[in-house]
Structures are given as structure tokens and as C-alpha cells.
């Protein structure tokens, strides 16, 4: 059995270091800690395609990789054809930007997703 570390909050860089040491980390993401339901056009409702390194919006349009912001630790994905967002019936709800929708993906997003799943499935939460 792996050693277990239960945390209240930590950033993904620190969590990745701990995870690499084969220590099972139980920590909620900000979304899980707030217990807020995702809005219809929340990033979690966009599908990430790792093969194409792109996101698919709920309306079926593709947001492609644009650049990486190393200072903030994420990659940015954008709708290349701004008119698609501007003419979308959900404009104003999904995005208010005339430049179209953007999504920021953490550089270590896979770690965040793994830890969210561990938190959801944790048998330790009921005993804390």
C-alpha cells in the first residue's frame, strides 16, 4: 500500500513532485473544494483531444493550441475563426470576447485530473 498524504490545498507543481515519489495524495481541486457545479460552458464541458492537442467546444467547434505562458504555467487554446464565436447562439454566455473563446490548460493538467479522481474515489475522506 502506498503512503497517503491528505492535504487541504497545494499547487499542482508541488503535488506533481509528491506524486512522483509514489505517495498517494488526497487533495481537492479548487472546484471540488468550492463544491460549485460547473456552468454549461465551463472548461470541464469542453473535450480535450490529446492526439490533436485541441479542445472541442460544446457546440462542436475546435479550439487549437495558440501559445504557452510559462510564467503562469499553462497553455492557451483559442478559437481561430473569431466569427464562429461571435455568431454562436451562446455568445455572451460562453464568452463575451469579440476575439472568441480561450481556454487555459495547466502544463501539468494530467496531474490535476489524476488527483481529482483520487479525491473523488478516496476511502479516506469518510474517516477524516
From TrEMBL:
<protein>
    <recommendedName>
        <fullName>Transposase DDE domain-containing protein</fullName>
    </recommendedName>
</protein>
<dbReference type="InterPro" id="IPR025668">
    <property type="entry name" value="Tnp_DDE_dom"/>
</dbReference>
<dbReference type="Pfam" id="PF13751">
    <property type="entry name" value="DDE_Tnp_1_6"/>
</dbReference>
<feature type="domain" description="Transposase DDE">
    <location>
        <begin position="56"/>
        <end position="122"/>
    </location>
</feature>
Amino acid at each position: 500500500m502506498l503512503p497517503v498524504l491528505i492535504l487541504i490545498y497545494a499547487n499542482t507543481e508541488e503535488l506533481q513532485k509528491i506524486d512522483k515519489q509514489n505517495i498517494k495524495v488526497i487533495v481537492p481541486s479548487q472546484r471540488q473544494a468550492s463544491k460549485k457545479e460547473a456552468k454549461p460552458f465551463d472548461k470541464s464541458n469542453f473535450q480535450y483531444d490529446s492526439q490533436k492537442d485541441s479542445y472541442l467546444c460544446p457546440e462542436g467547434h475546435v479550439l487549437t493550441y495558440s501559445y504557452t505562458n510559462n510564467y503562469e504555467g499553462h497553455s492557451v487554446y483559442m478559437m481561430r475563426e473569431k466569427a464562429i464565436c461571435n455568431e454562436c447562439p451562446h455568445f455572451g454566455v460562453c464568452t463575451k470576447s469579440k476575439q472568441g473563446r480561450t481556454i487555459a490548460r495547466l502544463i501539468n493538467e494530467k496531474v490535476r485530473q489524476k488527483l481529482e479522481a483520487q479525491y473523488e474515489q478516496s476511502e479516506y475522506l469518510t474517516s477524516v
